[in-house]
Design a protein that fits this description.
By secondary structure, the protein is mostly helical. It contains 20 helices and two strands. The protein has a two-stranded antiparallel ribbon. A hairpin with a 3-residue loop joins strand 1 and strand 2. The radius of gyration is 24 Å and the shape is globular.
C-alpha cells in the first residue's frame, strides 16, 4: 500500500483553475452605482450624527452624491469595460453604450427629482434622513441594472430600485399615501414572484444565469425542455411588464402617483420606468434572442393595448377631481410606456438590437420633460393642495415662467412645435416600427398620438385662460432653479435634437 503526501490530497480537492476566481475589480466601471450607494450610506450616517437643525444639509449632500455619480460616467465613454468575469461564463457587469445611456437617464432623473424634493421635504415635513437615503439607494439600483449581464444581478438590481420606492411613497403619512404604497408593494411583489419563477425555469432549461449563455442554451435545447424554457421566457416578460406598467399590469400607477409626494411620483415615472425598460431590453435582446419573433409579437400587442388604454383613461380624467393633474400625468406615463415598447417589439422582428436606440432616445426626451411637468405640479400644489386641473386655470397670470415651462413640456409630450424634440422622438419610434415591418403598430401609434393631443392641448389652454384674481405664485429657489434647468434642457434639445437622436445610430452592445 502506497501513501501520498498530504499536499497531493489537497491538490486533488482544489478547484480547477482556482486562480481564475481571484480577479481584480474594475472600480472605474462600477463607480456610478458605487458612488450613489456610498452617498446613501453617508447620508444615513450623517442623519444619525447631525443635530436636528443641521439636517437640512442632507439634501445638498444627496445632490452632490448624484452629481458625483454622473461625473463618474465620463471616463466610461471611450470603450466598453467589463468586470466580475469568469472563464467560459461571461461577465456579470458590462459598462457599454447601452448601460451608459440608461445610467445617464437614471442618475440624471434622480438628480432632477432630488432638486425638486429640496423644498418638498421641508414643506411636507417628511423625515429627511430616511427620504434622502431611500432616494439614493433606489438610484444606485437603477444605475446598476443597465450594466447587469446575468439574470441574478438583474433581479437583485431591480429589487434595489423597487424596495426603497415603496417606503418613499409611504413617507407621505396620510391615508392616501398608505393606500398608494400598499398597492405599489403588492403589485411589485407579485411581479417579482412571477419573474423569479420564470428565471428559475430558464435556469433549469439552460443551466446558466448569464444572458449570453441562456441565449446559447435556448438554441440547443432538447425537445422535452423547450416547453419549460418557453414558459420561463413568458413568465419573465410578464414580470417585467408589471415593472414598466404595461396594460393589464398597470392598475397601481394612478393611485400610487396620486398618493406619493409629487417628486417621488416624477421619480417613479422616469427612473423606475427606465430601470424596468432596461431590464426588459436586456432579457429580450440578449437572453431571449432566439425567441425574437415570439416576444416581438407579444411586446407589439402590449404596446398597442398600453398606449390605447393610457390615452383613453387620460381623456376621461375630470378637471375638477382631486389630484387630477397628477393622475393625468400618470395615465400619460402609461401611454408613453406603450410608445417605448414599440422599438423593443421592433428589435424582436428585426433580429437585431439596433431599434433599441429609438427607445433610449425617446426615454431620454420623455424623462426630461416629464420631470419638468411634475415640477410645475409640485409648485401648484403649494397653493392648491388638491392639485385639480382647474387649479391651473390662469396660471400664466400668477406665474408666467411656470406656465410657459409647463406649456412647453406639454407640447413636447404631444410632439407639437415648438416642442420639436418630442416630435423627433415620436418620428424615430415610428421609423423603428415601419422598418421592422410593423406597419399596423405604427398606425395604432399615430391614432393614439392624435388622441393624446386633445388632453394635452386642453390642459395647455387652461394655463392661459382668464381666472380668478389671486396672489402671484412664487416658487422657492430650488424649485425655480429646477424648472429653469429642465425647461432650458428641453429648449436646447429642440434646437439641437441630434444631441439625443445620435443614440439611435450608435452601436448599443
Amino acid at each position: 500500500m502506497t501513501t501520498q503526501p498530504m499536499g497531493t490530497h489537497l491538490m486533488d480537492l482544489a478547484l480547477p483553475h482556482a486562480g481564475s476566481l481571484i480577479q481584480s475589480v474594475d472600480w472605474v466601471a462600477i463607480a456610478p452605482p458605487l458612488i450613489a450607494a456610498a452617498a446613501a450610506l453617508l447620508v444615513l450616517l450623517a442623519d444619525l450624527l447631525l443635530p436636528e437643525a443641521r439636517k437640512r444639509l442632507l439634501g445638498p449632500l444627496t445632490v452632490l452624491g448624484l452629481v458625483g455619480s454622473l461625473v463618474a460616467l465620463l471616463p466610461l465613454t471611450g470603450r466598453t469595460r467589463s468586470t466580475f468575469c469568469f472563464p467560459g461564463a461571461g461577465c456579470s457587469y458590462t459598462a457599454d453604450h447601452f448601460a451608459l445611456a440608461f445610467q445617464l437617464l437614471a442618475l440624471g432623473g434622480a438628480l432632477i427629482a432630488a432638486l425638486l424634493s429640496l423644498s418638498t421635504v421641508a414643506d411636507d415635513r417628511l423625515p429627511a434622513g430616511e427620504y434622502w437615503f431611500l432616494l439614493l439607494s433606489s438610484a444606485a439600483g437603477a444605475a446598476l441594472l443597465p450594466a447587469a449581464r446575468d439574470l441574478a444581478t438583474l433581479v437583485v438590481a431591480l429589487e434595489v430600485v423597487s424596495l426603497p420606492s415603496f417606503a418613499l411613497v409611504a413617507l407621505k403619512r396620510d391615508a392616501r399615501g398608505g393606500e398608494a404604497a400598499l398597492k405599489f408593494f403588492l403589485s411589485s411583489v407579485t411581479a417579482t414572484a412571477v419573474m423569479l419563477l420564470g428565471v428559475g425555469f430558464l435556469y433549469a432549461a439552460t443551466g446558466s444565469l448569464q444572458l449570453d449563455a441562456v441565449a446559447h442554451g435556448l438554441t440547443q435545447l432538447p425537445g422535452r425542455l423547450k416547453p419549460l424554457a418557453e414558459a420561463g421566457a413568458m413568465l419573465a416578460l410578464v414580470g417585467f411588464a408589471f415593472k414598466v406598467a404595461a396594460v393589464p399590469f398597470h392598475f397601481w400607477v394612478p393611485d400610487t402617483y396620486a398618493g406619493a409626494p409629487i417628486p417621488v411620483a416624477g421619480y417613479l415615472s422616469v427612473v423606475g420606468k427606465a430601470a424596468g425598460f432596461a431590464g426588459l431590453a436586456l432579457v429580450t435582446s440578449i437572453g431571449l434572442r432566439p425567441y425574437g419573433h415570439t416576444w416581438g409579437l407579444l411586446l407589439a400587442v402590449l404596446a398597442a393595448v398600453t398606449m390605447t388604454a393610457g390615452n383613453t383613461a387620460a381623456l376621461r380624467q375630470r378637471s375638477d377631481s382631486a389630484q387630477g393633474a397628477v393622475r393625468l400625468l400618470a395615465w400619460s406615463s402609461v401611454a408613453q410606456a406603450g410608445y417605448l415598447l414599440v422599438p423593443l417589439a421592433a428589435a424582436g422582428y428585426a433580429g437585431t438590437p439596433h431599434p433599441l436606440g429609438a427607445t433610449l432616445a425617446y426615454a431620454l426626451i420623455y424623462g426630461l420633460v416629464n420631470l419638468g411637468a411634475f415640477g410645475v405640479a409640485a409648485l401648484v400644489a403649494r397653493t392648491s393642495p388638491a392639485n385639480r386641473l382647474d387649479d391651473y386655470r390662469g396660471l400664466f397670470a400668477r406665474n408666467r415662467g411656470a406656465a410657459l415651462a409647463l406649456a412647453f413640456f406639454l407640447l413636447c409630450l404631444a410632439g407639437l412645435p415648438p416642442g420639436v424634440v418630442g416630435l423627433f422622438g415620436k418620428v424615430v419610434v415610428f421609423q423603428a416600427a415601419v422598418n421592422a415591418g410593423l406597419g399596423w403598430l405604427a398606425v395604432i401609434m399615430a391614432v393614439n398620438v392624435v388622441i393624446a393631443l386633445y388632453y394635452y392641448l386642453l390642459w395647455l389652454a387652461k394655463l392661459f385662460a382668464p381666472g380668478q384674481a389671486v396672489e402671484p405664485t412664487r416658487a422657492p429657489a430650488p424649485l425655480a432653479a429646477t424648472l429653469g434647468l429642465t425647461a432650458a434642457g428641453a429648449v436646447v434639445l429642440s434646437v439641437a435634437p441630434q444631441l439625443v437622436l445620435q443614440v439611435v445610430s450608435g452601436s448599443l452592445f
